[in-house]
Amino acid sequence: RNLGYGAVFTTILWAKLLLFFIFFIVFGIFAWANIAVARRRGGYTRSLKAPFAERPVKLSDIVFSDRYAKYSWAAIILFLSLIMGSQASGAWQTILEFLHASKFGIADPIFSKDAGFYVFRLPLYDFLQGWYLYSIVIVFIGVVISYFMDQAMGLQGNSFYVNQKARSHLA
């Protein structure tokens, strides 16, 4: 504050916090919706899972049982949402540049776009595309794990099988 940059500090701080919470919530809703669909569609094969007397009970059988699965997935999604939100808060400068963009007055000879587009707008589009791609990959892995735990997909002998409901969700 003594140097007169208090407003700059608060702008950066608010941008980071706002980005964290927005992307935290977006990822959390996206992941929770997909895991909920996977849990619902894997319910049929989960109910067919027969306990074998010779098979020992694993920790994953307890953690992802019907009784604790909701809490286990909530903890996993919360953790991943924290990571995705903190990763997004690192793009505060890109967001602020996008919000305060200006034109350069020089047009690109190939695409006829102003040079300001490449400096202020394109980095945000690139960030959003990368963040969304990472989100899809992480949620896809989570959904595959959910279907695997529900035995809607897995190995049977020498072949790999996928339940029709799981296949339609993963497609």
Write a structural description:
The chain has 171 residues and is mainly alpha-helical. Helix content is 68%, strand content 5%. The chain contains seven helices and two strands, in the order ααααααββα. The protein has helices at residues 6-41, 43-47, 59-63, 69-89, 92-99, 115-149, 164-170; strands spanning 153-156, 159-162. It has a two-stranded antiparallel ribbon. A hairpin with a 2-residue loop joins strand 1 (153-156) and strand 2 (159-162). Helix 1 packs antiparallel against helix 4. The radius of gyration is 23 Å and the shape is elongated. The termini are far apart.
Q: Major beta sheet, specifics?
A: 2 strands, antiparallel
Strand content: under 5%
Q: How much is the radius of gyration in Å?
A: 23 Å
| Tally of helical runs | 7
Between the first and last Cα atoms, what is the distance in angstroms? Answer: 54 Å
Question: What is the share of helical residues?
Answer: 55-70%
Mean pLDDT: 85
Q: Which stretches of 5+ consecutive residues score pLDDT under 50?
A: none
Shape: elongated
Structural class: mainly alpha
In sequence order, what are the helices and strands, one letter per element?
HHHHHHEEH
Number of strands: 2
Strand order of the largest sheet: 1-2
